[in-house]
Amino acid sequence: MESIRLAPEPRSIGAARRFVQSQLAARELEAAVAVLLTSELVTNVVQHARTELTVVVNVEPSVRVEVHDGVVATRAFREIVARPRTEVPATSHGGRGLGLVSALASRFGLDDEPGHWDGKILWFELDPADLA
Question: Can you tell me the distance from the alpha carbon of 54 to that of 39, in angstroms, rounded to the nearest whole number?
Answer without folding.
Answer: 13
